Amino acid sequence: MMEQALSPSFALGGAFARPALSGLRVDDREAVEACQRGEREAFDGLVERYQRDIYRLCYRYVNDPQDANDIAQEVFLKAYRAIGKFRGDSSFSTWLYRIAVNACLNFRSSRRPAAEELSDALQDGRAGALATMEEEERAKRVRDAVGRLPEKQRATLILKVYHELTHEEVAGIVGSSVGTVKANLFHALGNLRKMLQAEAGK
Amino acid sequence: MSGIRRHLSDESLMDVLDGAGGPAARHLASCAECASRLAEAREGLALTRAVDVPEPPGLYWQSFPRQVARRIEAPVANRPWRSWVLRGVVAGVAVSAAAIGFLAIPVHRPDPQPAPRLPAWSALPPADEDPALPVLQALGPELDPALECGGVAECLAELSEEESQDLVRMLRADVKESLL
To answer: CB of A107 within 8 A of CB of A62?
Structure first.
């Protein structure tokens, strides 16, 4: 029988319990193997499966839909070009997240501060997602605060809170120990709350 | 009695936030400082979780794999067309325009040629009415080495829909900014 999804998070309850999703999946493995045999179309399935996760990860980093779109495309392009070297030491999703985090970090370091203005093309979607101006303002404050966290804290928080990865998966992506990931996340949450509280008190 | 007399480490507090019980959780009942730190983190978590990523328009997810596939299948020579490069070009255009006060200098147009062809998708004003394009054309010779294509007009014509929209948007914003 082929390997089924690895999902260590099943064992974790509490604040970060999540449904089965990422991990080494049978369909990922088949698609990766097909890509490695040169079947380009097989990659489409991987893109369809992970496009939302990767786009959202990128969005969390750059707070801009156009930039998130650009980076997400770049992530898949890089993944496709490097897929021949993927040996399955980690799950495909972990590998892809690692590429995405690196791409986001590179983008941020080469770029002016994230634009505040939304593109016309994507504005409709946002308007539908946030009901009121107050919610919008609050969401913006949180996103800005996340953007001000130190790199590792931000990466850890985004991957853990928004993408519901396990501590082990996050550790593999950001290149830290599990203990460091937990400490970083705890710091990030405390820092975030302090930043938001300080802003609210202004 | 909790069994832990020192304050909990961040790692242990994170475990408690994850739902772990045991001595660390019991320690919180008798340590106001650790309990307070945990409460702060819990509040931070709630605030963070409450914010979602705005969902793109309906057709976005259908078109995204096609865009990726198109880029994968594009010849390597076309890679400079990535918007990363375009953004650099746009920034260069804006800076140059601001520096030379481009409104005061007659825009040099090369030999009479058909106007740059934008893809038919565009719902934006016609290309020759867009104030950004003459700037690009005027700076064309300077930009060519960076663009690695036959010329600005050819390059514009080869842009994908998304790249074109992105370019026009950025040009407008940057030219507007440079005029302020």
So the answer is: yes
